[in-house]
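Translate sequence into structure tokens.
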Amino acid sequence: MSRKVVIASAGAGKTHRIISEAGDYANHGNKVLVVTYTENNQKELISRFSSLNIDNDKFVVKGLFSFLLEDIVRPYQRCAFGERIETINFNSNGDPHKRNGKTIPGRKELLACGSFNPDYYLTQCRKKAHTTYLSKLASKIMKLKEKEILDRLDGIYKHIYFDEVQDLVGWDYEILKSLSKSKTVPITCVGDFRQTIYDTSVASKGPKSSEQKLDKFRSMKFDEEHLAVSRRSVQSICDYADKIHSDEGYKKTISTVAKIPDNFSAHVGVFCVSESNAIAYIDEHKPVLLRHGINSGKTFNEVNIKKINFGKSKGLGFDRTIIVPTKPYIKYILGDCAVFDGDKSEESKNKLYVAITRARYSVVFILPDKQVSKCNLPEWKKN
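Result follows.
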């Protein structure tokens, strides 16, 4: 059965692709499941599909944790636990079995008899599953009940999509591996691996990096499709964003923006602006300000402008953006292409890619006055 991973660029229309294909299935009376990670993307998918005036019962959107619990763990949990698992316990602070850096006694994965330890996978009330270990639990149950689980899913859905698949890690890929064994239900995974800034788990199991994830799809014999276009950003922004991952084998992003509105055409592309001129720029062009966090660019906290953190901006688009770069980002903008090489993860590099690709017509970086002359980007100055 069809197994495909769609490797998209930022602004390529990933949601549009899923909605269009799901609509075709629904029009023929078939039910489609879309699994995604963030709540914002779940809401966006549901809203976009609802606008098509198609039977909503044929389009099912679930968060990853809901899918794992409702479609894999709970229906077959008796092979592991007796009491019904009612919901999840979101482990926002990481590993629930660590206290002050030390493992809490009694939290090993298996009991002495070899059976599942409820204190490893569940909270003390035994009714909530830890999100950190939910994929691992689901994969263990799936190994025991793989045929039953696949038969059940095959009987409900005619296609299963995994959106924002770049955010999956570790045991999530064991789930995909088992699901890909279905002989009747196609599996399509869609994502931009350069936008990997969230993780579904803190577990140490790979794959973790974008390269490892793509290699995993290849080992599972998923067909690759490249959606290397941007329906959002002009070509100059696409080109600048592509440079961040230029040595990683991604195809050149081609902008499909055919016409720039007259009120934006006089200022298009990627620029820098000095700190002393930034307020004047904001007053003239009314951009959205993107920053690392609330403590970044404190100078602009009182300025009447929309402000969004890099991570929160993912999935959004704006006409113009002005970016408060971190120190590593300033080094990169000034030409140090190796600044991310020593990072333990891809998060910093990928957040820069996310920030740049939010804009439709112009991106401006705020630089210290003394650094502007060292930048190869055109400088904006007030006329």
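Note: The mean pLDDT is 92.
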